[in-house]
Design brief:
single chain; about 550 residues; alpha/beta; TIM Barrel; 2 domains; nine-stranded mixed β-sheet; eight-stranded parallel β-sheet; disordered N terminus
């Protein structure tokens, strides 16, 4: 029985039993004493005052001495005397947080007892961060994200296939919670270019210059793609990932509208990398907003600053106008000044120097850090099509403009990371800490509570209508999942750079996943975690 039922809807005897169970899930006993005595008084037809005066002491003594009460204390874990910041309730005060059974069981202005206590004096206690946009679905990548305070890692832009097998590479006890959308691109590859799938299985590398990313689908292929997307949504996919910018020549209007129509039918979002035009051109944004408005689908625009470029403010104005018209559209940004893409990406087949307003000398080969020339760019594109570039084109002012709207979330766009032998961008190791350190403490672009909201609450609110488990995440309240971050606001700093992308941050004291301390004093305690896969079917 849940707390959604009203006490008034139950019989008197049922109310007493229900009230006890309701109180047992983390509430203090004072409300229980008053409620239970009142209900029993009414059931027996005796005066409220006389019954309460006689029975309250006896009932209190029984509760204190009973095995049930003894089992309630101490808590599994208590975070003591930290500055608890919960953006949803606007709580910002020194509190102690009691955790039991993987959930927040108490938030108190007094000390609490527990088998394990973390002294958070002088530190901030916040909800665990939720990364909506990460491609680091391997232990090496999840390790870096966890050290950066991320307790839920989601692969929503590119998605995956099949949903049921996502995360198997993480083992039986992943470090963080995880989930994914249905990957339109991967299904398209299976339908149009199955040999490319076999190549991935044998080499572990993805070549996005093949037929699946360049060739239009036939009517029959489009129907097959639709059917497979639908099957994966029924299996629990968190939405549909749509990489339009990587398939500019391949995905026509009919296929795009089909994806949005399926999303609307199954009431899930489309997470889209919009087609990129010349610096600031909003055509790609207009396209997906129109599709969402036509079909009624929800849409999430990935890495706004990287796609809009100097047009960030104009793009946000369009998004705000669409939201005012009732379009369910949201967006995110990442706090870095470079992008990363495979050198075989479709954008590099176009006039990318004009699109990004950069030249060859602004592009690095991610693996080695080599700054490229025209000749070396051509060499790698021919011989290493699956290799990653780092192209430096994002102005800090664009990031500031993105954060000027209070609905813009923060995500990392962390690149795939199987091991630490080859460099990638630092996004996976320092996105949260960069926001908290650089944007809050140094630049003062955000308040601390606002930054925490963009890293936790807003992503949880975006996902909760489509996956009920997110209603318990991104918050610190009784009954919420005990996914928490403890950090020093005066010290938290991203150390990862483009030349040293795997350096963990400083200032992240502890990270709790599902009630278990996974990081303490900035160190990963174990490679065995408490993470679980989140799907649309997760309770």
């Amino acid at each position: 029985m849940t707390g959604t039922r009203r006490v008034s809807d139950l019989s008197a005897s049922s109310r007493w039993r229900w009230s006890w169970r309701w109180q047992w899930h983390g509430r203090d006993f004072s409300g229980l004493l008053m409620r239970s005595s009142f209900v029993r008084m009414r059931a027996l037809g005796r005066p409220k005052r006389r019954y309460s005066a006689f029975c309250l002491p006896l009932l209190a003594a029984w509760l204190w001495c009973s095995p049930l009460a003894q089992a309630a204390t101490p808590y599994d874990l208590v975070i003591q005397n930290g500055r608890v910041i919960d953006p949803e309730s606007q709580l910002d005060a020194v509190r102690s947080v009691g955790i039991r059974g993987g959930r927040v069981a108490a938030i108190s202005d007094k000390p609490l007892d527990a088998a394990q206590v973390i002294d958070a004096t002088g530190l901030v206690v916040s909800p665990g961060f939720i990364n909506l946009h990460s491609h680091s679905a391997a232990e090496a990548g999840y390790r870096l994200e966890l050290l950066d305070g991320v307790t839920t890692v989601l692969e929503l832009e590119a998605g995956t296939f099949p949903i049921a097998r996502f995360g198997q590479q993480l083992g039986d006890a992943p470090l963080t919670h995880f989930g994914a959308s249905v990957g339109h691109a991967w299904i398209r590859m299976l339908v149009i270019d199955p040999q490319a799938v076999n190549d991935i299985a044998t080499t572990g590398k993805v070549d996005i210059s093949g037929r699946a990313f360049t060739q239009s689908a036939t009517v029959e292929q489009r129907a097959q793609i639709r059917s497979m997307i639908e099957q994966e949504l029924l299996a629990g996919g968190l939405g549909i990932g749509l990489l339009l910018d990587y398939m500019t020549r391949a995905v026509d209007d009919a296929e795009r509208d089909m994806v949005f129509a399926v999303a609307a039918q199954y009431e899930v979002p489309v997470f889209v990398h919009v087609r990129r035009g010349i610096d600031g051109d909003p055509a790609g944004l207009n396209e997906v907003i129109a599709a969402a408005e036509l079909t009624g689908a929800a849409v999430h625009i990935c890495h706004l600053n990287a796609s809009a470029m100097s047009g960030v403010t104009h793009w946000l104005d369009k998004i705000d106008a669409a939201r005012a018209r009732g379009v369910d559209v949201t967006t995110e940004m990442y706090p870095w000044t470079a992008g990363s893409a495979m050198i075989s990406s479709d954008v590099f087949s176009r006039d990318w120097r004009t699109i990004f307003s950069i030249d060859y000398a602004d592009v690095q080969w991610a693996e080695t850090g080599e700054w490229l020339t025209q000749e070396r760019f051509a060499y790698y594109r021919q011989t290493r099509p699956g290799g990653q570039t780092v192209h430096h084109y994002i102005d800090a002012a664009w990031n500031q403009a993105a954060l000027s709207r209070d609905h813009v979330m923060v995500a990392s766009d962390a690149m795939p990371l199987m091991n630490y032998d080859r460099k990638v961008v630092p996004n996976g190791a320092g996105t949260s800490s960069r926001v908290l350190g650089h944007y809050v403490r140094e630049q003062k672009w955000l308040t601390l509570s606002d930054a925490i909201a963009r890293l936790s609450l807003l992503p949880a609110q975006r996902m909760a209508p489509f996956a009920p488990a997110f209603a318990r995440k991104g918050r610190i309240r009784v009954g919420a999942d005990a996914d928490l971050v403890i950090f020093d606001p005066k010290m938290v700093t991203a150390r990862a750079t483009y030349l040293a992308p795997f350096l963990p941050p400083t200032g992240i004291h502890s990270v709790v996943v599902a009630g278990r301390v996974s990081v303490q004093h900035g160190q990963l305690l174990d490679t065995v975690g408490m993470g679980t896969q989140i799907t649309s079917l997760s309770p």
